[in-house]
């Protein structure tokens, strides 16, 4: 499929939302294997992925609401009960490509918008990234020891954000490293692990996520090297699309656009507000 034929429409949005929902479900499965006592799980209701990964986890939400079919009142009750019975808030990440009836339904049930996300995509048929610094090497973490090194590096990339608990972030990354069909890419420079990036593949879509660089190693080209390695891997696996999600107008969005990514749409996260 050529670049001109991949347009931002409902069909594209269904592929992108399904890829992210599947990646979230794999993460929850990995968490459940590592920590059965955590009580994490996911369900699917009318094509909507609902993930419970703990009440404070960013994974705990839904993806794909209204992308395959308009949810009924019974569907919404089931989804809301899934979260509320587990002591969690209710959050739906909704594409604007969903039927407008979804927004009306959310408004009628007491939801309010709380967050925006840019969803970007890149057709892989004509990707050509410039060569990076030959001193930076990228490999896929294979052994348990390498996956632990990847998790530590990925978590260290977030250490300057004081509002993020470092132990919690390390746990997230360790779980991410144990997911099925989600290779972990580690960038090394001067014999040091300097940056990490994740990848999840679903039906020809490569979701790029989990990218971070240890602060003192930034501006050295590590993320460029990780991007190139992940895109080449995705093409070798038969993917025709890559996707990435960022905060609107952020440095991450600008960097992605410089590499050829285009905005497919801006997603809204909705939160259920109910009287106490």
Notes on the protein architecture:
By secondary structure, this protein is of the alpha+beta class. The chain has two domains: 124 residues, 3-Layer(aba) Sandwich (Aminopeptidase); 103 residues, Aminopeptidase, CATH 3.40.630.30. Helices cover 34% and strands 28% of the residues. The protein has an eleven-stranded mixed sheet with strand order 1-2-3-4-11-5-10-9-8-7-6, with helices on both faces. Helix 4 packs antiparallel against helix 5. The protein is globular, with a radius of gyration of 19 Å.
Shape, principal axes of CA atoms: globular
Task: Give the terminus-to-terminus CA distance.
Answer: 52 Å
CATH architecture of the largest domain: 3-Layer(aba) Sandwich
Give the fraction of residues assigned to helices.
Answer: 25-40%
Beta-strand level of the residues, as a percent range?
A: 25-35%
- Gyration radius, to the nearest Å? 19 Å
Helix/strand order: HEEEHEHEEHHEEEHEHE
Averaged pLDDT = 92
CATH fold description of the largest domain: Aminopeptidase
What is the C-level CATH assignment of the largest domain?
Alpha Beta
Largest sheet, strands/sense/barrel: 11 strands, mixed
Quickly count the domains. 2
* Oligomeric form: single chain
In DSSP terms, counting alpha (H) and pi (I) runs of 4 or more, how many helices? 7
Query: How many distinct beta strands?
Result: 11
List unreliable stretches of 5+ residues: none
Brief rundown of the structure:
With 276 residues, the chain is an alpha+beta fold. 34% of the residues lie in helices and 28% in strands. The chain has 2 domains: 3-119 and 266-272, 3-Layer(aba) Sandwich (Aminopeptidase), CATH 3.40.630; 137-239, 3-Layer(aba) Sandwich (Aminopeptidase).
């Amino acid at each position: 499929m050529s670049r001109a034929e991949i347009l931002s429409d409902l069909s594209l949005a269904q592929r992108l939302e399904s890829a992210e929902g599947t990646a979230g479900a794999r993460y929850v499965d990995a968490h459940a294997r590592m920590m059965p006592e955590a009580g994490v799980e996911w369900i699917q209701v009318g094509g909507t992925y609902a993930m419970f990964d703990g009440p404070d986890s960013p994974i705990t939400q839904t993806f794909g609401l209204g992308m395959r079919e308009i949810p009924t009142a019974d569907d919404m009750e089931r989804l809301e009960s899934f979260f509320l019975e587990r002591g969690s808030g209710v959050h739906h990440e909704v594409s604007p490509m969903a039927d407008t009836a979804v927004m009306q339904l959310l408004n009628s049930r007491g939801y309010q918008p709380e967050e925006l996300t840019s969803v970007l995509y890149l057709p892989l048929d004509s990707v050509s990234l410039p060569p990076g610094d030959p001193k930076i090497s990228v490999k896929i973490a294979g052994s348990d020891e390498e996956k632990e090194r990847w998790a530590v590096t990925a978590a260290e990339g977030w250490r300057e954000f004081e509002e993020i608990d470092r132990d919690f972030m390390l746990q997230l990354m360790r779980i991410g490293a144990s997911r099925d069909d989600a290779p972990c890419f580690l960038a090394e420079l001067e014999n040091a692990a300097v940056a990490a990036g994740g990848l999840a593949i679903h039906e020809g879509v490569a979701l790029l996520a989990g990218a971070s660089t240890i602060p003192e190693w930034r501006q050295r080209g590590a993320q460029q090297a990780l991007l190139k390695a992940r895109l080449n891997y995705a093409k070798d696996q038969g993917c025709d699309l890559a996707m990435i999600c960022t905060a609107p107008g952020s440095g991450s969005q600008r960097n992605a656009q410089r590499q050829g990514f285009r905005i497919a749409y801006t997603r809204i996260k909705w939160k259920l507000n109910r009287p106490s």
